[in-house]
Amino acid sequence: MSFETAYSGIGRLDRLSYRDTVIHRLDPRAKVVATMLFAVVVVSFPKYEVLSLLPFFLFPILIGALGDIPAGFIARKVVAVSPFAVFVGIFNPLFDPGVVAIAPGVSVSAGWISFASILVKFSLTISAALLLIATTSFPGICRGLRRLGIPALFVSQLLFLYRYLFVLIEEAIRVVRARDMRAFGKKGAGVRVFVRIVGTLFLRTVERAERIYGAMLARGFRGDVPSMRSEMFRPADAIFVLAAGGFFALCRFVPVPQMIGRLVGGLAG
Amino acid sequence: MHMADALLSPAVGATFWAGTIGTIGYASKKLKEHLDDRKIPLMGVLGAFIFASQMINFTIPGTGSSGHLGGGMILTVLLGPHAAFLVMASVLTVQALFFADGGLLALGCNIWNLGFYPCFVAYPLIYKPLAGDGRSPRRILLASMASGIFVFQAGAFSVVLETLLSGKTALPFTTFLLMMQPIHLAIGVVEGFVTAGMIQYVRAARPEILDSSASSAPLAAGISFRNVLIGFVAFAVVTGGALSWFASAHPDGLEWSIGKVTGMGELPEQKRGIPAALKSVQEKTAFLPGYGFKPAAGEPKEKKQERPAWPNVDAGTSLSGLLGGVLVLAIAFGIGWAIRAYRRYNRPGSP
Questions:
Q1: Is B318 an 8 Å CB contact of chain A?
Q2: Which residues 145-204 on chain B approach chain A with CB closer than 8 angstroms?
Q3: Structural domain boundaries of chain A?
């Protein structure tokens, strides 16, 4: 992933999060809690489970569709971060060679099933996490975290980071562009130059922080970042969390695909 | 080396979240006691700085591959351990949200792996003693190298441990270890070199930044060896507790699903490591009379619902499961597509 694509990816997620849809209007706390619950329930499935995980795709699909988030964009981002999970998972077929019948006449090794399970869990949890930030503004998530009891100092740290992220990335892009123009391929892009670039960037950052501090003092800063927004946890938010939780519980404890399969098989037969 | 949700079990994920949240709370509290307001914007902007500089890659000498900065050690030297931990945690949180590096459940592990070791282990126990007053370039280089190597070895080892404890991979412990540690040795050396370079660059250009962080004693020297030790013991106890829960909760669920997926009732024998240990636990706990119908919490309850529907699993039932799986996916995607189509149809001014 090149610098510019990474940056435009962040920018695009950020812009998506300021849309106005049913999902965007939900309280950030409701979405944070539902997404965490989703991740926990999904990974709580045992190693060789694939089929029972499939109904869980409904959650990211619904959030994405109702929140009007481009599906291809999320899918590309999921693929982009997959290497580590794939790298670890791909060894399962090698080390777990027991043969398993999945249908009459068709058998695969148990390792492939656990690998498939890792991939399904990966796509589910990562797409849900991306959809959380695509449907909730970052300051909204921070307010939600504050209300959920995360220390104020850490939340204001997150807000500051977010505020200056784009400024600093753009500055870094300019520096890197200048380096690459002078570096003719790989030459000059080594560690020594990197240290100097990052050192310069660091000093500029510190100087910027000093100016910011002065400006904040002038505006009456006393050590915390208050929010003027008061958010109510409305009935709709509670319904969302309860519905999501109920759906997760249903799919966790009832083998929905197998039941549907038997039902359809019974009707056909 | 970001840990991923898909490789975690809830018990391991929750344990590391607990450790991370606890450390965030502790660092916030410590920082608040001696906070100089000036540090709040500095911490925030430095978080953005680490984020941005991680996106700048450089060529690793001799290999031609490219690396990027971790940043934990630099932050700790410049800000002190408590502030640095909060900054690292915030950087990783934003990465988890915007890049989906790992996912939300794994975020606890990632903050622990990349933040705890540099701030609370490497800095007080390795960097400080080796660097001394921080005026000799050679000692700074030595201290940065040693802590860079340690931080990445500890981080990589944690990833291995978290993955294996979660039991989602079939990789044997030693194989996985041998794959992870050497790569991270190289990364650690590069990180140490970059850290030393940065510190010396800052020392040359703005020495007062380093002096102020080193002299603000409450921030830099607030950690005693005893506290670190207590932290480790507490963590070990929590881990042990969570693992025993995991060990007792997992086997029957595993057995159950293997039986369902494979149609064989039990899998090819896992010869060693955690699966084997779990298996022995399971042999002691499973197949008790009436076990499947006992109305208890957690897994047994699930069994109770499963048993009657699936008395014996054969290839035919697996086939209907597959059919159902395909249908469920089709329904889910169909709903998504219908909502999108409806939206497109109703959107004002759409072509």
A1: yes
A2: 163, 167-172, 175-176, 190, 193-194, 197-198, 201-202
A3: 1-150, 151-227
Please name the residue that has the structure tokens 């989703």: A38
Question: Which residues, 6+ apart, have CB-to-CB distance to B235 below 8 Å?
Answer: B19
ipTM for the complex shown: 0.84
As a whole number of Å, the end-to-end CA separation of chain B is 45
- Contact flag B46-A195 (C-beta cutoff 8 Å): no
R_g of chain A computed on alpha carbons? 24
Query: What does the alpha-carbon distance between residue B286 and residue B336 come to, in Å, rounded to a whole number?
Result: 42
Q: Which of B87, B104, B250 minimises the CB distance to A36?
A: B104
Tokens 């969390």 label which residue?
A: A241
Q: What integer pLDDT is reported at residue B118 of this predicted model?
A: 92
Q: How far is A145 from chain B (nearest CA, A)?
A: 12
pLDDT at B220: 38
A29 pLDDT higher than 80? yes
Mean per-residue pLDDT, A57-85? 89
* Among the partner residues B7, B35, B170, nearest to A95 by beta-carbon distance: B170
Q: Is the pLDDT of residue A191 over 50?
A: yes
- Report chain A's terminal Cα–Cα distance, integer Å: 51
Residue B42 half-sphere exposure toward CB, CA atoms < 13 A: 18
Element (H, E) at B185: helix B173-205
